[in-house]
Amino acid sequence: MMRNLHPENNDPDKLGEFLDSSNRAWRQACVTFFGCIDRATFGGKYREQIYCACLPGCCYEELLNIFQHFRDGLILSTKQYKEIPAGLFRFFVGCRDEPRVHRLLGRFSTGVITMEQFRSASKELKENQQKDEDLKAENKRLRDENEQLKKENERLKRQKRHQDVFEYAEDLEQTEPTVRKTYQRKVTAEVEVHLEEAHKKRRIQKEKEERYIELIDEIIREDEAETTEVTEAIEEDNEVVENIQEVTNEVTFSKGEKITAFWEDKNISGWYPAVVLRVNKNSYYVRYFDGVKSSLKPKDIKKTAN
């Protein structure tokens, strides 16, 4: 009922997207419809129901199948349930990864996994999503810090160039009267020592600045290397998660078996009835209900619900 009240429920452009769960008009309509819901605690107390009501269309269809299986007593579990136990979908709250959510709901709906396995897998999905978000946040922090170091390095380089010009002009101003005085009278030994010390101090200062700039360049290179490692770690984690999901999602089918197969082109996409014509090493050759034949990977095939 909460989904039927949502203004985006029948919007064809929103079929593959999550509905806006923060819509104030929709939340007020839910509070008014149910009557007994406290408006102040609606968002926190019913966050699981809000999330389920705002699922994308394909995920919501799998959810309805799960509801029906509970009513029919077809859910695989160590205990018998006639109603959905509280908190079954609590680990999904906040997860916006539509392909993973749909895959997990579909496996539970078709009986590939038990309710206990579904709970464990949804918890693992939540933890993996949190790790991904933490890695992305750390990656962003390192990139921002890297940009700040680059800006500071450029500023120091500009300051050094300006200082060199200023020192050169200062040297000219100091040298010109010294040269005139040289021809006017002899330069004393004390003045020569003073000039030598001044030049020595300037050389030492320049060397310090150059070492500081080199140090900043080295820090920037280390940060870039660390940023690259974090990015590679994120990609490796995603590949590991996808490989684990592909391995755990494998279900064998036999020739002549009726199945539900995924079809997608520029006009339509979805799951349709089909039959297995040939079993290959890493794929299945199937014929859809309308006669179209295609070779599919195991992830695009699932058992037909009873």
TrEMBL record:
Entry keyword annotation includes Coiled coil: yes
Keyword field: Coiled coil
Chain segments annotated as coiled-coil in the UniProt record: 118-162
The organism's place on the tree of life at top rank: Eukaryota
Gene3D superfamilies: 2.30.30.140
Keyword Coiled coil: yes
Stated name of the protein: Tudor domain-containing protein
Organism this protein belongs to: Mytilus galloprovincialis
